[in-house]
């Protein structure tokens, strides 16, 4: 399973764009990159996933360079309600035949949005 | 529609007792996962069920931990002879299939072993 490294914590003011970078140097060919968000006392919530280049949805953007050894989650114009822990995960689905699918959650990045 | 539900929400038990945690996945989701989250830590994978296939038990920390799933519905995680280090939040998640990257998590069961 590919190991991921991301900053332990980040602070940002309301209205700013926040970029959280995750390193995954030993990502495998079949691995996808997925980001989850977790609020206190809740289970994680899927934000976005991608394989390469750029993916955008209504919540965030995910930038993945050509070598795929890192990825950056971009949150536009954050608000206080974006204060949460953000997890970067790398993995391959079980049904792809590559083995069991396990989401390996590290400690994540604790984002604190300041008024 | 209804999300993933778990019960109980909180459980306090004495060391050495057995506990059973329940998870009701989203209807139609064939894949189900159990994770453990210790205070201030990330999630630790425990076990994965996909349809009628044999479960992936590679994350279970000891033989005191076991889990069952009835078809593609309810799952129970059982911890026998609980120890204080078992204290954590136990999270259940389900997804449409094992090929789906989007897992839907329940609120978790907070287990405290005294």
Descriptive key words:
heterodimer; A: 115 residues; mainly beta; Immunoglobulin-like; 4-stranded antiparallel β-sheet; globular; B: 114 residues; 6-stranded mixed β-sheet
Total domains of chain B, how many?
A: 1
Task: Please tell me what the overall shape of chain A is.
Answer: globular
Largest sheet of chain B: 6 strands, mixed
Give helix % range of chain B. under 10%
In spatial order, strands of the major sheet of chain A run 1-9-8-3-4
The coarse silhouette of chain B is globular
Mean pLDDT of chain A: 89
Instruction: Count every helix of chain A, treating DSSP H or I runs of 4 or more residues as helices.
Output: 0
Task: Provide a brief overview of the structure.
The complex is a heterodimer of chains A (115) and B (114). Chain A has 115 residues and is mainly beta.
Can you give a write-up of this model?
The complex is a heterodimer of chains A (115) and B (114). In chain A, the strands form two sheets. Chain A has a five-stranded mixed sheet, with no helix packed on it. A four-stranded antiparallel sheet of chain A has the order 2-7-6-5, with no helix packed on it. The mean pLDDT of chain A is 89. Chain A is an all-beta fold. Chain A is built from no helices and nine strands. Chain A has strands at 9-13, 18-23, 32-38, 45-50, 53-56, 61-64, 70-75, 84-91, 109-114. Chain A has one domain: Immunoglobulins (Immunoglobulin-like), CATH 2.60.40. Chain B has 114 residues and is an all-beta fold. Chain B has one domain: Immunoglobulins (Immunoglobulin-like, Sandwich). Chain B is globular, with a radius of gyration of 13 Å. The termini of chain B are far apart. The mean pLDDT of chain B is 92. The chains are: A mainly beta (115), B mainly beta (114). The interface between A and B is medium-sized, with 24 and 29 residues.
């Amino acid at each position: 399973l590919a190991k991921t490294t991301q900053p332990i914590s980040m602070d940002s003011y309301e209205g700013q764009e926040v970029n959280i970078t995750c390193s995954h140097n030993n990502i495998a060919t079949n691995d996808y990159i997925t980001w989850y968000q977790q609020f206190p006392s809740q289970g994680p919530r899927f934000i976005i996933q991608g394989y390469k280049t750029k993916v955008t949805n209504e919540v965030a953007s995910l930038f993945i360079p050509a070598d795929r050894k890192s990825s950056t989650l971009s949150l536009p114009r954050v608000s206080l309600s974006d204060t949460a822990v953000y997890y970067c995960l790398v993995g391959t689905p079980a049904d792809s035949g590559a083995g069991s699918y396990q989401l390996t959650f590290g400690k994540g990045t604790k984002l604190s949005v300041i008024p | 529609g209804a999300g993933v539900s778990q019960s109980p929400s909180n459980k306090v038990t004495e060391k050495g007792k057995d506990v059973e945690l329940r998870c009701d996945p989203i209807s139609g989701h064939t894949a189900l996962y159990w994770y453990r989250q210790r205070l201030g830590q990330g999630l630790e994978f425990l076990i994965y069920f996909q349809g009628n296939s044999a479960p992936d038990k590679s994350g279970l920390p000891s033989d005191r931990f076991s889990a069952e799933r009835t078809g593609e519905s309810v799952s129970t995680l059982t911890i026998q002879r609980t120890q204080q280090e078992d204290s954590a939040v136990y999270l259940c998640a389900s997804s449409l299939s094992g090929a789906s990257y989007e897992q839907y998590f329940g609120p978790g069961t907070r287990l405290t072993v005294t």
